[in-house]
C-alpha cells in the first residue's frame, strides 16, 4: 500500500467518518462497530493535533452527532449537550485521576457519582413551571431535533413534576433506551411481519424516537433514566443554580423526588479508589441488568470541583466513561471449515484472524448453516464484524461490504462428509445439512461417545473429550458400550496415561454403570431429546422397553414431545445399529432403580409451569428444578404467556423484566422453599 500524506489521510478519514455518521445517526443502520468509529475519530483528532492546519471547520471532529432530520423542527439547546471522553483500562483511569488531582492541586479523596453508561440516546427535557414543554435529541450538541410528542409517550417520563417548588425552567438530561425484553419482543414481531429486525436495543430506541408518528413510538415501550441537569433558571434566561444541590448525586436525588426516573444502580462513592470496584461489579452483572449498558460513567461529585475543572472542547474534565471491552470488533475471515457434530450436522466454522473482543481473543465463530452463509453473503477474505457478548459464543454479525478484496472467494458447501466422505443430505424442513454416515463416521462416533460420558448423561469422571478422540482414533472403541470393555492394562498403553489414571478411569466407568433411566435416555443422544424430554419420557413410560416399543402417537402424549421429536425417537429405535448398542450397554451391566409411581395427590403442581432465574443461594438450580418436577410441575427455560410462576433469585435480569411485562407471578427463593416444604 502506498503511504498517504497526512493531508490525504485526513481527507480519507473525513469521508469515512461522515459516511459512518450518516449511517449511524440518520439511517439508524451502522455498518461498522463503535470501536472502529472511535478509532478513526481518535486518529483524526491526533492528526489534527499534530498538524493544526488540517483542522478545518467542517471536520467531523468538530461535531458530535448527526445532522437533525429535516422532518423534525430544530431546537437550539440553551446549554450545549456534552459528550464524554472514554477510558478502557485501569491505567487510563488512573491517569485520568492523576490529571484531575493535578488540576485541582490536591490529592485529597474525591467522591464520585458512579453510574452505568446506558446504551441509548441522550435527550434533554425542558420543564417550564413544572410542566414538560419540550424534548430534544442531542443532535450535534448545540442543535437537536424536537421530539416532544414522542417523548410524551414514554410512560416513565412525568408530564408534570411532582413538586411545584421548582425554578421556572428546569432542563433534565438523560438517556432514552429500550429494555432488553421489549427489544426482543419488538424484533420477534418484526420477524413475524417479515420486517427487518433492529441490530440492537440502541438502534431500536433511536428508530422508535425518530418516528414522525408518535402513535408508533407509543407502542415501543421505551424507558428513560435522568443523569444530569441542563439549564436551570427563569424564562428570561437567567441561570439560578442556587436551587440545585452542590453534589451531583444529590442533584439526581432531587430529580427523583420530582418524579423523574433514576437508574437504581447509581451510587455515591466516597473516594476515587472505589471506582474500579464499581466498574468490575457492574461488568459482572451486565447480563443480568434488564437494559443494555456499555460501561460506567464516573463523575466528580462535588459541583464546585466540577466547575474548577471545566470542559475541553466537547466533554467535561470532571467525568469519564470507563467503558467495557468492546463486544463487537472487525476482523478478517481467513477460511471456512466444516465440522461434523454428534447428529451428523455439518456446521461451517469461520476461521478468523485473531481479534480481541468482549474481553477475550477470538479466532473461531460459528456460521450455523448454509442459510446463514447466504444471509451474510459472506466470502473468504471479507472483513467482518464479530460479536461476543457475555458467555455467548462469538457470532459473525455482518460483512463490511466496502472492504471486500478483489481476491475474495465464495464459500463452497461440501457435497460429501469432510470426515467419512459419506454423502450429505438436507431435509426439506431443516436448515442443516447432515452427514449420512451415522456411526460409521468417526466424527459422529466421537461426539456420540463424548455426549454419552458427559456430566448430565452417564457422567464418567475423568473421561475428557481429548481422551475420547484418542480412543476412537486408535480404534480402541467404536461405540459407547465399548467403553465398558476397556481394561486398565489396555488404557495404560495410551500416551500420557499412567497405570494410576488408567485404574481410576476403569473405576469411574464401573461407577457410571449405576444411573437413572432419564440419564440413560438422554445419554443415547437421540436428536432433540434433551435432559427435560428424557426425564419426561422416563416418568411417563417408567421402563426402557416401553419407550423402545412406543408409537409416534403414544410418544406424543408425553410433555414436550411433538411430532418431530416423536419421529426422531421412533427412527432412533428403528435403526438396527442403535438397538445393538443399547443391548450391548445393558449387557455391560448398566442399570437404574425402578421409578416410583406418584399418585395425583403426590403431584400437586401438575399443569403449572415454572421458570427459574437469577442466583439461588439456598439450593442449586438443578435441585430446585428436580424438586418442582417431582411435584408434577413443568420447569421451562424461558418466560412466556404460558408461564405461571417465575422464581427470581438474586440478580435476576431480563427474564424478571419480561415476567413483569407479561404480568406473570414472581416468587422469591423463600417463597419457593416454603412451597416445597408444604408439598414434599
Ligand atoms: S453524562 C456532561 N451519564 O453517553 C456529561 N451520559 O458518550 C454528559 N450516557 O451523550 C453525559 N449513560 O448519551 C452521562 N450515566 C450517564 C450516561 C451517559 C449514557 C451517554 C449519553 C452521552 C454519551 C456520551
Description:
- The protein has 680 residues and is α+β, with helices and mostly antiparallel strands.
- The protein has six domains: 6-55, Helix hairpin bin (Helix Hairpins); 86-323, D-amino Acid Aminotransferase, Chain A, domain 1; 328-410, Nucleic acid-binding proteins (OB fold (Dihydrolipoamide Acetyltransferase, E2P), Beta Barrel), CATH 2.40.50; 438-512, 5' to 3' exonuclease, C-terminal subdomain (DNA polymerase, domain 1); 517-587, DNA polymerase, domain 1 (Orthogonal Bundle), CATH 1.10.150; 600-679, BRCT domain (Rossmann fold), CATH 3.40.50.
- Helix content is 36%, strand content 20%.
- The protein contains 24 helices and 24 strands.
- The strands form six sheets. Strands 14, 15, 16, 17, 18, 19 and 20 form a seven-stranded antiparallel beta sheet that branches. Strands 2-13-10-3-9 form a five-stranded mixed beta sheet.
- A hairpin with a 4-residue loop joins strand 14 (328-340) and strand 15 (345-357).
- The site of 2-(butylsulfanyl)adenosine (IVH) has 15 residues, from strand 3, strand 8 and strand 13.
Amino acid at each position: 500500500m502506498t503511504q498517504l500524506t497526512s493531508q490525504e489521510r485526513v481527507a480519507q478519514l473525513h469521508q469515512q467518518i461522515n459516511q459512518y455518521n450518516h449511517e449511524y445517526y440518520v439511517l439508524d443502520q451502522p455498518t461498522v462497530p463503535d470501536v472502529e468509529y472511535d478509532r478513526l475519530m481518535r486518529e483524526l483528532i491526533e492528526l489534527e493535533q499534530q498538524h493544526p492546519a488540517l483542522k478545518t471547520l467542517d471536520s467531523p471532529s468538530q461535531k458530535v452527532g448527526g445532522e437533525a432530520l429535516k422532518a423534525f423542527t430544530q431546537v437550539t439547546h440553551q446549554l450545549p449537550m456534552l459528550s464524554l471522553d472514554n477510558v478502557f483500562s485501569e491505567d487510563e483511569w488512573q491517569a485520568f485521576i492523576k490529571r484531575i488531582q493535578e488540576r485541582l492541586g490536591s490529592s485529597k479523596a474525591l467522591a464520585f457519582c458512579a453510574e452505568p453508561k446506558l446504551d441509548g440516546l441522550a435527550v434533554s427535557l425542558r420543564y417550564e413551571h413544572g410542566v414538560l414543554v419540550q424534548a430534544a435529541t442531542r443532535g450535534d450538541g448545540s442543535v437537536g431535533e424536537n421530539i416532544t410528542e414522542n417523548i410524551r409517550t414514554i410512560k416513565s417520563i412525568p408530564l408534570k413534576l411532582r413538586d411545584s417548588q421548582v425554578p421556572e425552567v428546569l432542563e433534565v438530561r438523560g438517556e432514552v433506551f429500550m429494555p432488553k425484553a421489549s427489544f426482543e419482543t419488538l424484533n420477534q414481531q418484526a420477524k413475524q411481519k417479515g420486517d427487518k429486525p433492529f441490530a440492537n436495543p440502541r438502534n431500536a430506541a433511536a428508530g422508535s424516537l425518530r418516528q414522525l408518528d408518535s402513535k408508533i413510538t407509543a407502542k415501543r415501550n421505551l424507558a428513560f433514566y435522568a443523569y444530569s441537569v441542563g439549564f436551570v433558571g427563569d424564562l428570561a434566561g437567567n441561570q439560578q443554580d442556587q436551587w440545585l444541590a452542590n453534589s451531583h448525586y444529590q442533584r439526581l436525588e432531587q430529580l427523583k423526588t420530582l418524579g423523574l426516573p433514576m437508574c437504581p444502580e447509581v451510587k455515591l462513592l466516597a473516594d476515587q479508589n472505589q471506582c474500579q470496584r464499581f466498574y468490575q461489579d457492574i461488568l459482572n452483572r451486565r447480563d443480568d441488568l434488564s437494559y443494555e449498558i456499555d460501561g460506567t460513567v464516573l463523575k466528580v461529585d462535588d459541583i464546585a470541583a466540577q466547575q474548577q475543572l471545566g470542559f475541553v472542547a466537547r466533554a467535561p474534565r470532571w467525568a469519564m466513561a470507563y467503558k467495557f471491552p468492546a463486544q463487537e470488533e472487525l476482523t478478517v475471515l481467513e477460511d471456512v471449515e466444516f465440522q461434523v457434530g454428534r447428529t451428523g450436522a455439518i456446521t461451517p466454522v469461520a476461521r478468523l484472524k485473531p481479534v480481541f473482543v468482549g474481553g477475550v481473543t477470538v479466532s473461531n465463530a460459528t456460521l450455523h448453516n448454509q442459510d446463514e452463509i447466504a444471509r451474510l453473503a459472506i466470502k473468504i477474505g471479507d472483513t467482518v464484524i464479530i460479536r461476543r457478548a457475555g458467555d455467548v459464543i462469538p457470532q459473525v454479525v455482518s460483512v463490511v461490504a466496502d472492504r471486500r478484496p478483489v481476491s475474495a472467494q465464495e464459500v463452497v458447501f461440501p457435497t460429501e462428509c469432510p470426515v467419512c466422505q459419506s454423502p450429505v443430505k438436507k431435509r426439506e424442513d431443516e436448515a442443516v445439512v447432515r452427514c449420512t454416515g451415522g456411526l460409521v463416521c468417526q466424527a459422529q462416533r466421537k461426539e456420540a461417545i463424548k455426549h454419552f460420558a458427559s456430566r448430565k448423561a452417564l457422567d464418567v469422571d475423568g473421561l475428557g473429550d481429548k481422551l475420547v478422540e484418542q480412543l476412537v482414533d486408535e480404534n480402541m472403541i467404536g461405540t459407547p458400550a465399548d467403553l465398558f470393555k476397556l481394561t486398565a492394562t489396555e488404557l495404560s498403553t495410551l500416551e500420557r496415561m499412567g497405570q494410576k489414571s488408567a485404574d481410576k478411569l476403569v473405576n469411574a466407568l464401573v461407577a457410571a454403570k449405576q444411573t437413572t433411566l432419564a440419564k440413560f435416555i438422554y445419554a443415547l443422544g437421540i436428536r432433540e431429546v434433551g435432559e427435560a424430554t428424557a426425564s419426561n419420557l422416563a416418568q411417563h413410560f417408567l421402563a426402557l422397553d416401553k419407550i423402545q416399543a412406543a408409537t409416534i402417537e403414544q410418544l406424543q402424549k408425553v410433555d414436550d414431545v411433538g411430532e418431530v421429536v416423536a419421529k426422531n425417537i421412533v427412527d432412533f429405535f428403528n435403526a438396527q445399529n442403535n438397538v445393538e448398542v443399547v443391548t450391548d450397554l445393558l449387557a455391560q451391566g448398566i442399570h437404574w432403580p425402578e421409578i416410583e409411581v406418584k399418585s395425583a395427590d403426590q403431584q400437586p403442581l401438575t399443569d403449572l409451569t415454572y421458570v427459574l432465574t437469577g442466583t439461588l443461594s439456598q439450593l442449586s438450580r438443578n435441585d430446585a428444578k428436580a424438586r418442582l418436577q417431582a411435584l408434577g410441575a413443568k420447569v421451562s427455560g424461558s418466560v412466556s404467556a404460558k408461564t405461571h410462576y417465575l422464581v427470581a433469585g438474586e440478580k435476576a435480569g431480563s427474564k424478571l423484566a419480561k415476567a413483569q411485562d407479561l404480568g406473570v407471578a414472581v416468587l422469591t427463593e423463600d417463597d419457593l422453599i416454603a412451597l416445597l416444604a408444604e408439598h414434599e
